[in-house]
Structures are given as C-alpha cells and as structure tokens.
C-alpha cells in the first residue's frame, strides 16, 4: 500500500515509521526545509513541497496513493489537503488530523475526509476508557455513515454477562468488532460468551449509541420492571 503523509513533524514521522515497519510505501511531504529529516525516517520517500499546491501533489503522484494522511499542525492545511486528495486525485482513503476540537465538525465527507482523528478527543477518550466501566466511550469518528468506534467495559451487574453473542438483540446499525479479554483479542463469533470485564469495541451509528449503552449496562432484574 502506498501512503502519502502531509506534514513531516513528530506526528507525521511517527506514523511513517509505523507504516514502514508494516511493509507499506510512505512518502512524507512538507514545505519547511527544517522538517526534511531524511535520517530520521530513512526508508521513506521525502518531498520538499507545499501539499496545498496542485503542482506539488502532481509531483507526489497522489493518484498512485491508496491513502493520504493530512497530519500537519494546521487544521486549514489538513482540510485543503484532504479535499484535493479526494476530489482531484480520487484517493480511496483520506485520514485527517484535527488539532483544534472546535474544528472537528468540519472534518467530514464534504471536505474529503474519511476518518478524522482528534488528538485531544482521543486522549480524553483513552482516559475515560481506563477508568470507566459500564459507560460508552467514543474513540474515533468515521465520516461516512455518521458512525463511530466506541468502547464499553461490560460491568459485572450487566444482564448480558454470561450471554452468547449470537443471542443478543443488538441495536440496528451497530456491529461488535472485537472483544478484549485480559491479554487476549477475540473475534466475536455467535458462540462466544460475554464475560464481566470484557472490553467490547463496536462500530455504531451515533444515533444508536445511547440504545447500545442501555443494553450493555442494564442490571439484572431491571429488564423485568
């Protein structure tokens, strides 16, 4: 997979390193000469250019990329890069970094963004995830379909503890993706039994989140009231 990353700062270089370790081709693009540190990510391609300029993106051969990541520290730049990548070059997957949470509402399909990653929101979500049991935590927002990646740790008093996945009447527009149990990552087959303390990851429509939280957190006996 070929990936272009706009922004060769600490965030962009870190992403590039991870992708290269996983066997992908990576191009880092930045207009600041001081950001071009080839020795820090020697396996990546580097381009000194303004990612908001069509001529620069032509030089980067963006049409050959499977993914573009707009990872600069400027939300305006990330939006422009995302829009150009999607509309001018037809890049299948565009991921954009949100620096200011107040701008998060802009990072959607209209601006060419498939996945928006808000660092402040993600850090907050991870803190919540670490201390919350029985509360739904939103980890990531997907632009298409108004869906989110959400997590809930199943509380001991939940009526679903001891229930098989296939027996649960999940809300519409929700999908159980993974069960994390201790050090294990489980594929949620219909025969898998839910246990108290399981971390459950879902892709769910935002409109269904409250219904999903109610279902998972319901206490034994409450459903009989």
From TrEMBL:
GO terms for biological process: monoatomic ion transmembrane transport. Residues 137-218 form the RCK C-terminal domain. Pfam families: TrkA_C, TrkA_N. PROSITE patterns: RCK_C, RCK_N. Signal peptide: none annotated. The keyword Membrane does not apply. Keywords: Ion channel, Ion transport, NAD, Potassium, Potassium transport, Transport. The keyword Glycosyltransferase does not apply. Residues 1-117 form the RCK N-terminal domain. Transmembrane segments: none annotated. It comes from the Bacteria. This is Trk system potassium uptake protein TrkA.
């Amino acid at each position: 997979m070929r990936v272009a990353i706009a922004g060769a700062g600490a965030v962009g270089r870190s992403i590039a390193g991870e992708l290269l370790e996983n066997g992908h081709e990576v191009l880092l693009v930045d207009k600041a000469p001081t950001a071009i540190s080839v020795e820090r990510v020697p396996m990546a391609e580097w381009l000194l250019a303004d990612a908001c300029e069509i001529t620069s993106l032509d030089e980067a051969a963006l049409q050959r990329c499977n993914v573009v990541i707009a990872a600069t520290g400027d939300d305006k730049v990330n939006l422009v890069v995302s829009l150009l990548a999607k509309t001018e070059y037809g890049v299948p997957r565009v991921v954009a970094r949100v620096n200011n949470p107040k701008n998060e509402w802009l990072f959607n399909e209209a601006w060419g963004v498939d996945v928006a990653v808000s660092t402040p929101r993600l850090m907050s979500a991870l803190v919540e995830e670490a201390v919350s049991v029985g509360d739904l935590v939103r980890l990531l927002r997907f632009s298409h379909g108004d869906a989110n990646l959400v997590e809930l740790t199943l509380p001991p008093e939940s009526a679903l503890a001891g229930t098989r996945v296939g027996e649960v009447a999940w809300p519409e527009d929700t999908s159980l993706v993974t069960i994390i149990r201790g050090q294990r990552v489980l594929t949620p087959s219909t025969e898998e039994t839910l246990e108290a303390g399981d971390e459950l990851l879902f892709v769910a429509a935002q409109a269904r989140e409250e219904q999903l939280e109610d279902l998972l957190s319901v206490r034994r006996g409450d459903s009989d009231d």
